[in-house]
Amino acid sequence: MAGGILIANRGEIALRIMRTCRTLGLRTVAVFVEDDAEAPHVGFADDAVDIGPGGYLAPGRLIEAAQRLDCAMIHPGYGFLSENAAFARAVTQAGLIFIGPSAETIAAVGDKIEARRRAVSLGIPVIPGCEPSTSPEALLDGARSLTLPLLVKAAGGGGGRGMRRVTRYDDLGQALAAASREAESAFGDPRVYVESAIDGARHVEIQIVGERDGRVLHFHERDCSLQRRHQKIIEEAPAPGLSPHVREGLARDAIRLAEAVRYEGAGSVEFLVRDEEWFFLEVNARLQVEHPVTELILGIDLVMAQLLVASGGRMPWLQDDLQPRGHAIEARLCAEDAGRGFVPCPGRIERLQFPSGPGVRVDAGVVAGGTVSPDYDSMIAKIIAYGANRDEALARLGCALEETVVLGVETTGGFLRDLLDDPRFREGRPHIGLAAARAAGWTPSQVKPQLFQAAAAAAALALAGERRAVRVSVGEQVDSPWQHLAGWRLGAGE
Questions:
Q1: How far apart are CA 387 and CA 393, in angstroms?
Q2: In CATH terms, is domain 128-196 a member of 3.30.1490.20?
């Protein structure tokens, strides 16, 4: 893998990619906009370039920067241009390597309607639904034949944008129009389709990585059922409580679909699971935010796998080598006020203390003194815990969240800790409506008192340290315990 790698992203995922590149001895180039000039990912890279107007969404500027700084590859991370077929095509046409699926594959699976048709052609079960047809009226008529409640979905993208839940047929026309407008604004594609909503189901995804010669491996499943507004909050691997029949069926169908489109690179195939049934949802043609839980239970590096595959190499594993051990759970800590409807809370982070200890991993893209910008995702960090079993992982994650201190902005830490204590979640019975139900009416009074104690202690210690530094700087005598240790030295013998 000669040449540098430009990371066309920011925050924690840019740092995550850079760390793997560093272990492999690969030079990295960060990109940034003016407001991000002091961001951690900029200082961590070997080189950095101000990408200028258009920022992280300017394909031409990203490619020009990669060429000018002698990069052979571009890693899109996730979000931004990571699933943009036109960007992947432009990178390749510029003589660079796009670290991800080909433009053709992204187009095939990124269009949810086309991906759904592929699944149907392979005999993979899909949710009963109705696709766009010749006119909005025809789609409306077809959707009326489906069982309520319904979900209106955007064909060209996800993340909850362009999605509407409908509980009455009379509201369907308005929901279709509103979803179409939002989809066009978010993805440049106004097409929407309709599916029956499967309440009480679980959201389970299979991690896959495909090689250039057509070999595809699966890296087992993750449960991502705890969501708010169709955004994942807590993810875990393996998915608790799945029968062998469901677990094997999900992996089998994910591989079949990936092989059918000659999938190359990392991605995930997502399903809804209800009892012993499963239904194909979509393919995410990129690395997922929740990939650390898979890495921890398998002891692997998925970014390294991406780099190997993109450079034409082979992964160092056979399918039978990938046997899960233990359990991992990830919580997304965001700058949002959970007590006021989870409104975003951008601002300066005055104090920041992340947890540590056995089985604890933190992927973060911010530091104390930094700013959570209103222009980007509100996630501060991913707090991840690993244990020999699910109970141990849960206990470690709970302690890790209590040890996490963020002062200056409101966070979702208290809500996450409370959600971990939900009896249905602790018993391994999550479903896609659980977090939203828990969030309804949630107030900060439910936060564990340790969070407040830790925050107060951290603030007091930091303030005392600042005051002492000021007194020293003006030459004032500061009392110290070291002044009372006459005749004592470290390591002195008896």
A1: 4
A2: yes
Does position 157 have pLDDT exceeding 90, yes or no?
no
- Rounded Cα distance, 113 and 84, in Å: 16
* Residue range(s) occupied by CATH 3.40.50.20 in the chain: 4-99
> One-letter amino acid identity for 195?
E
The pLDDT-based confidence of 95 (bands split at 50, 70, 90) is very high
58 or 2, greater pLDDT: 58
Q: What is the pTM of this model?
A: 0.89
For β-strands 129-130 and 192-196, DSSP reports them as antiparallel
User: Would you call 217 helix, strand, or coil by DSSP?
Assistant: strand
| Interatomic CA distance for residues 433 and 443, integer angstroms | 19
**pLDDT one-digit tens code per residue, 436-468:** 999 998 988 644 555 555 555 655 565 556 555
Task: Answer yes or no: CATH 3.40.50.720 is held by domain 4-99.
Answer: no
Q: Which residues in the chain are classed under CATH 3.30.470.20?
A: 202-449
Q: Beta partners for 227?
A: 232
What is the distance between the alpha carbons of residues 409 and 404, in angstroms, rounded to a whole number? 13
| Spatial CA neighbour of 38 closest among 349, 339, 322 | 349
Quote the tokens at residue 342: 């989870």
Please provide the distance, in angstroms rounded to a whole number, between the alpha carbons at the two ends of the chain: 57
**Does the pLDDT value for residue 159 go beyond 90?**
no
Assess contact for 367 and 352: CB atoms under 8 A. yes
User: Which residues lie closer than 8 Å to 132 by C-beta, 6 or more apart?
Assistant: 113, 139, 155, 191, 192, 193
- 3-state secondary structure (DSSP) of residue 219: strand
CATH annotation of 202-449: 3.30.470.20
The candidate with the shortest Cα–Cα distance to 316, out of 332, 304, 327, is 304
Calpha distance 455→153 (Å, rounded):
41
Residue with tokens 């790698």: 5
